[in-house]
């Protein structure tokens, strides 16, 4: 039995202790038996944990959460077994304390044997042992079992020392129904029938590994296999998915393993690699040897997906497989260094994809990625790290809630940006050699950030820690402000922290970053100049210059207004500015205008964008359209005539490129490159203000609904659905909405289902908004990724924002209880971030203030970030409202007032 934690003499109270386990014992091996009951939503099991006793001890502390301990037995090194009558449970710290009958001396070896039972979680929680729905071979609904251990889910499955630094080996056994396939980290050692309806599957022993990587999968499964790598690589999926549609990702996975093994210089140590498409799973998880993915990332038809979606699948697969080395062979010692796992997997992904699919221009994709999602890119790092609620890459974390909240764009995108910056400075080959040394030094163990810096320093001969640690240990990044001196032909550069919501207080502006300027002039790129002080003066050719050539540095540039005007005239002069440089200029100018700390305003941004009417580069247009979406989102609650004028400005800006494409905009030909397809897709998806596009979308939609599903190319399918639903002239009743819901419920195409999901939230009629909310929270939508796609779409228009807020405030207790942690935090963000006015901000702040002590701490960091994003928009619109109206009117974008 168990009761509340009762600390004994010599132990501090749990309220004052941290959440780390004591170091009196160290687990070395787990013998684990599990028997999931998928139909009834429960599981039972037993575990024997082998310990080395490091200090004389009278107790053992383990992590345990939401499982019931039935029996506990101590087995001493002599073989004597002693039953422990009572264990003490601490719910807040998610631990059980096992008191020992007598002190065990250091140097002993003991075992603790426990039996337990627990409940299977729904896919909404996606933590611990979960179950989700699929259609079985007999055509009937079935339950699928899968685990999610990262970051603290394994303690919901069995009692363990659930910290990444406490590695051990695992021998696992599953009891499952006959006819089901069971997978784990290792290959199967034996399988035997134990009754007419049950079988026992024993898996081989793992290498030393962290608990959060332990994985189990149970269900009806088919597979395909590749032999293009040293060990078998397989993709598994349930029978209601066409397993052959996993061929693209299977090939990508095998090629990624070859590339990673060559890059890292050490062999993958397991005898097999399984990739499993899990119904209802959100994202992907890098479990060693048994990687699990949401179905859309693994078994959606390549020919029935957009070019961008196929690229995304390849990136996700390559990222998770990079973890098989960086994260699994060598693991962060504690969660404050988890950025090493995630950001390095991102860096390795872009590196591998550059070699496998160079035509995709992966590092351009990285720089131009959408700041609010997508591929964890450079823009996401710039966006979140300019937020007052940001955090350092290396951030102290203690509680499970704190750990969950650091899986964000700082951990992934900023970390990857820093590694890219460092690899450019050291040289990519030197950088890779240092990574190989790091993996060799710490194989099958744990490491810290400084361990990586030491290995890179050994190889490069540089003081890497001095060069780079300030970027990982401090929050934020600088904006470089420039003053030009025509007479001396110099520029004075000063650095200060950049915040999207305005002025930086002195106490937040004490860090001085070593900034490599990479100044591009007509003579080339200066690779040596560095600003490490508050300000300094540099000679430069004032006829043309641009800092941060190639956008490899993590900083913003604030040029004088006259320079912005010059750069606008020089965008296409003699190839001085690459497409990525043009992306960087747009991104920087938008950010400078938003912050409002210079003479630059939104009208200047509009004037600068007007120079891009002749632009033909996909990555540049993607950044232009993201920029315009940001402006429209900030002005969303302004008067309808201003919103209409903003749409006319966008339509005018796009008119030349759209006119040049003509009907090719929605016609896709065999053999078109990824960039060509994606270019047309992004233009079509943002051209709803162009009358012919609206009419075409309506025509294609009707053809699709009449049964000609091939009439709509997958590259524009989502846009067609969205345009029809969001335009009241095309959808003035429930008919089109209901047609799309029917498609979702009947199609076998994962790509079509995903496109429907992403479109439904764009229906703006209040009754349809409520219907969409109800649908998102129904059992029809298993995946948190899908639900968040719906919420994201709702947060893009006024009625959706109001409905989300009403839902949040009316269901706070349910959301905190059912969706606490990282997923709940993201949902709360969607409910908050759409607001743009001071009164709305105050309403949100007042409500959240009343929730103190009622679960708001689960989302604290997400809420800080969301509120700062709202404050930034409030300040931006207040400053520039009048000037934006005047500019739009002066340039003819308002309708005739007469």
From TrEMBL:
Residues at the site labelled Transition state stabilizer: 412
Residue ranges occupied by any Peptidase M1 membrane alanine aminopeptidase domain in the UniProt entry: 249-471
Natural source organism: Hyaloscypha bicolor E
EC number(s) reported in the record: 3.4.11.-
GO molecular function, one term: metalloaminopeptidase activity
Organism taxonomic ancestry: Eukaryota, Fungi, Dikarya, Ascomycota, Pezizomycotina
Domain annotation ERAP1-like C-terminal: ranges: 544-872
Protein name: Aminopeptidase
Pfam families: ERAP1_C, Peptidase_M1, Peptidase_M1_N
Cofactor: Zn(2+)
Residue ranges of every copy of the Aminopeptidase N-like N-terminal domain listed in the record: 26-213
Binding site for Zn(2+): 319, 323, 342
Any one cellular-component term (Gene Ontology): membrane
Cofactor note: Binds 1 zinc ion per subunit.
Family of this protein: Belongs to the peptidase M1 family.
């Amino acid at each position: 039995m168990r009761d509340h934690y009762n600390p004994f003499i010599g132990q501090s109270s749990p309220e004052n202790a941290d959440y780390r386990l004591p170091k009196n014992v160290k687990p070395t091996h787990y013998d684990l038996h599990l028997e999931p009951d998928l139909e009834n939503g429960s599981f039972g099991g037993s575990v024997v944990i082998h310990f080395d006793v490091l200090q004389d001890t009278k107790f053992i502390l383990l992590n345990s959460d939401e499982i019931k301990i039935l029996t506990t037995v101590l087995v001493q090194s002599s073989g004597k077994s002693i039953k422990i009558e009572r264990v003490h449970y601490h719910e807040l710290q998610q631990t059980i304390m096992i008191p020992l009958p007598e002190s065990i001396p250091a140097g002993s070896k003991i075992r603790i044997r426990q039996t337990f039972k627990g409940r299977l979680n729904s896919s909404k929680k996606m933590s611990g042992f979960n179950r989700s729905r699929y259609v079985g071979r007999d055509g009937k609904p079935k339950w699928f079992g899968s685990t999610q251990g990262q970051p603290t889910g394994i303690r919901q499955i069995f009692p363990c020392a659930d910290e990444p630094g406490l590695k051990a080996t695992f021998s696992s056994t599953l009891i499952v129904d006959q006819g089901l396939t069971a997978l784990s980290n290792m290959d199967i050692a034996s399988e035997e029938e134990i009754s007419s309806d049950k079988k026992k599957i024993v898996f081989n022993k793992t290498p030393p590994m962290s608990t959060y990587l332990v994985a189990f999968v149970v269900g009806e499964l088919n597979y395909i296999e590749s032999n293009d790598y040293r060990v078998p690589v397989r993709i598994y999926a349930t029978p209601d998915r066409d397993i052959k549609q996993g061929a693209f990702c299977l090939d990508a996975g095998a090629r990624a393993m070859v590339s990673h093994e060559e890059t890292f210089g050490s062999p993958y140590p397991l005898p097999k690699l399984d990739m499993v498409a899990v119904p209802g799973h959100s994202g992907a998880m890098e479990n060693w040897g048994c990687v699990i993915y949401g179905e859309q990332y693994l078994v959606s038809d390549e020919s029935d997906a957009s070019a961008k979606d196929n690229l995304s699948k390849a990136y996700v697969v390559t990222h998770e497989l990079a973890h098989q080395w960086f994260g699994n062979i060598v693991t962060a010692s504690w969660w404050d260094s988890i950025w090493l796992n995630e950001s390095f997997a991102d860096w390795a992904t872009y590196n591998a994809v550059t070699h496998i699919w160079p035509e995709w221009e992966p590092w351009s994709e990285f720089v131009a990625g959408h700041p609010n999602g997508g591929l964890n890119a450079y823009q996401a790092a710039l966006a979140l790290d300019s937020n007052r609620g940001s955090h350092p890459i290396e951030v102290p974390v203690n509680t499970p809630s704190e750990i969950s909240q650091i899986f964000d764009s700082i951990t992934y995108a900023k970390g990857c940006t820093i590694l890219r910056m460092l690899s450019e400075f050291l040289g990519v080959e030197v950088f890779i050699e240092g990574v190989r040394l790091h993996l060799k030094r710490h194989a099958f163990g744990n490491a810290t950030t400084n361990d990586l810096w030491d290995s890179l320093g050994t190889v490069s001969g540089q003081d890497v820690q001095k060069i780079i640690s300030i970027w990982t240990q401090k929050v934020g990044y600088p904006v470089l402000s420039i003053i030009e001196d025509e007479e001396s032909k110099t520029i004075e550069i000063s650095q200060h922290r950049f915040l999207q919501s305005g002025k930086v207080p002195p106490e937040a502006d004490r860090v001085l970053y070593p900034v490599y300027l990479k100044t591009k002039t007509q003579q080339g790129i200066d690779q040596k100049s560095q600003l490490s002080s508050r300000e300094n003066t540099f000679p430069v050719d004032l006829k043309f210059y641009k800092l941060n050539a190639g956008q490899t540095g993590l900083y913003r540039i604030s040029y004088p207004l006259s320079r912005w005007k010059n750069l606008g005239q020089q965008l296409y002069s003699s190839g001085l500015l690459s497409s990525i440089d043009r992306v960087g200029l747009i991104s920087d100018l938008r950010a400078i205008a938003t912050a409002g700390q210079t003479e630059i305003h939104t009208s200047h941004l509009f004037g600068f964008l007007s120079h891009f009417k002749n632009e033909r580069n996909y990555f540049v247009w993607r950044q232009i359209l993201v920029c315009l979406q940001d402006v429209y989102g900030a002005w969303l609650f302004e008067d309808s005539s201003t919103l209409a004028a903003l749409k006319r400005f966008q339509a005018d800006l796009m008119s030349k490129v759209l006119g040049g494409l003509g009907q090719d905009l929605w016609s896709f030909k065999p053999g078109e490159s990824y960039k060509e397809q994606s270019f047309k897709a992004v233009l079509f998806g943002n051209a709803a203000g162009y009358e012919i596009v609206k009419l075409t979308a309506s025509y294609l939609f009707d053809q699709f609904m009449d049964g000609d599903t091939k009439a709509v190319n997958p590259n524009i399918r989502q846009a067609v659905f969205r345009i029809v639903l969001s335009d009241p002239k095309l959808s003035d009743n429930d008919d089109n909405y209901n047609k799309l819901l029917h498609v979702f419920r009947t199609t076998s195409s994962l790509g079509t289902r995903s496109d429907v999901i992403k479109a439904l939230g764009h229906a703006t009629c209040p009754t349809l908004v409520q219907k969409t909310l109800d649908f998102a929270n129904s059992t029809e939508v298993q995946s948190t990724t899908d639900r968040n796609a719906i919420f994201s779409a709702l947060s893009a228009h006024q009625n959706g924002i109001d409905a989300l807020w009403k839902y949040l405030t009316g269901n706070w207790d349910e959301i905190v209880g059912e969706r606490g942690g990282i997923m709940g935090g993201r949902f709360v963000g969607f409910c908050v971030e759409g607001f743009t006015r001071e009164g709305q901000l105050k309403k949100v702040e007042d409500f959240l203030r009343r929730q103190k002590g009622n679960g708001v701490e689960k989302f604290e960091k997400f809420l800080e970030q969301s509120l700062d994003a709202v404050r930034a928009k409030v300040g931006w619109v207040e400053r520039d409202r009048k000037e934006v109206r005047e500019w739009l009117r002066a340039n003819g974008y308002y309708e005739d007032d007469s």
